[in-house]
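Format notes (please read before filing issues)

Several people have asked whether sequences and structure tokens are stored in separate files. They are not. Every record keeps both together, in the order shown below: the sequence lines, then the token lines. Line labels are part of the format and must not be stripped during preprocessing.
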Amino acid sequence: MNATPPLKVLLVDDEPLARLRMRSLLEACVDPRAEVVAEAAAASQAQAWLREHACDLVLLDVQMPGPDGLQLADALRERTAPTGLPAIVFVTAHAEHALRAFELDAIDYLTKPVRRERLQAALARVAQRLAERAAAQAQLQQQQGATAGGEAASADVVIVNDRGRLQRVPVAEVLYFKAELKYLTLRTAQQSLVMDGSLSDLEQRLGERFLRVHRNALVAKAAVRELERHAPTDFAELEGGEGAEGWAVRIAHVNEWLAVSRRQVAAVREALAQGAA
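Then the structure lines:
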């Protein structure tokens, strides 16, 4: 018998029949198991429920009357909670929002009609993400305890599972993390590694050493070298959305440019000023 507690799921879909079918599919999933703890027919209902309750996963329809699923996910990213944000898996009949969904740290993106095997794979990814988050929090607490005891904080590392090979990367060597669809890219001066994880989780763990310059990028403040305004066509990631104004930051050692959202320009300037002080 599997003693692992089931994943606690919030279903958000404006169609009752769609919620009923998803509930039935979840009941058929066995590894990991999942339990629907609440349902919501609108983003506002889901947000109200999440203010008072916690869950492991939000299965979120994209297209709904009023605020849509993408807007709800964006609002949840702004929320802070001691237990962290729930994982998000989008469910929709259309695939054109997939890139935007992963920029919002979604773990997966399911298209209707959802197959049980595909849902089971998404649940497995959620369970893995939650386990990694718990391990990262435990590691952070251990490191904080070691620092308080006078040990060097430079032992802080990121554990990367790159195609089955575990690698310890010192945080001091990391230039940036960037969301690339379902995965993250960790960039150092010497290499690029693909890893699973969430920018939101990393941002919370790494604290003031890193700066969220864009929805899809978390940059080490020490690696910020230059901020410039460029034509939006200079960078693929600057096409539309937050990067439409054309701001970008140059990263030390690799001389790469990353898009900067309009609301983060002031924070990047402050990081540059602190580095020059």
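For reference, the curators noted about this record: The CA atoms of residues 29 and 120 lie 6 Å apart. The chain has a mean pLDDT of 81.
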